[in-house]
Design a protein that fits this description.
Layout lengths: L11 E3 L2 E3 L6 E15 L7 E18 L8 H11 L4 E5 L6 E18 L5 E12 L2
Antiparallel strand pairs: 1-2, 1-5, 3-4, 4-7, 5-6, 6-7
């Protein structure tokens, strides 16, 4: 008798960190892409522009989780450790292409807001915003 294959699904994975319900589910994903153009000054005419190629590509990942119910304080600490390693991490985005390899990315910043505190000082809710940039 063959056992069924169990596949765990996720929407976003940065290195070995998975953004999902048990860690840090995100509710907003913003992308910003730059494109480089050089202004060429022409005597007696309006400037013309030469396309130099793609520029920086950035994602901002925002969401909230409730550490009392899932994951505790560990998810943000794991991400901070990852950022402190000073290494790029592979980004996998499960969109309409299912599991698209977005290449290597670096963590630029992690912002978190803790609210709704318990008597011992533990937050009931943590909102986060993580900014990453494409590496090379």
């Amino acid at each position: 008798m063959a056992l069924p294959i169990i596949r765990k699904t996720y929407l976003l994975k940065l290195g070995d960190f998975v953004f999902e319900g048990d860690t840090a589910p995100f509710s907003k994903l913003s992308r910003s892409s730059d494109f480089r153009w050089k202004s060429l000054e022409i005597f007696g005419e309006a400037p013309r522009y030469q396309y130099l190629g793609p520029g920086e590509d950035r994602f901002t990942i925002s969401g909230a989780y409730y550490p009392f119910h899932r994951g505790g304080m560990e998810p943000m600490e794991r991400l901070r450790e990852k950022a402190g390693m000073g290494e790029p991490h592979r980004l996998i985005y499960a969109n309409e292409k299912v599991g698209e390899n977005m290449g290597l990315w670096i963590i630029l910043s992690i912002k978190e807001t803790r609210t709704h505190f318990l008597p011992d000082g533990s937050p009931r809710k943590i909102e986060f915003q993580i900014e990453i940039k494409r590496y090379g």
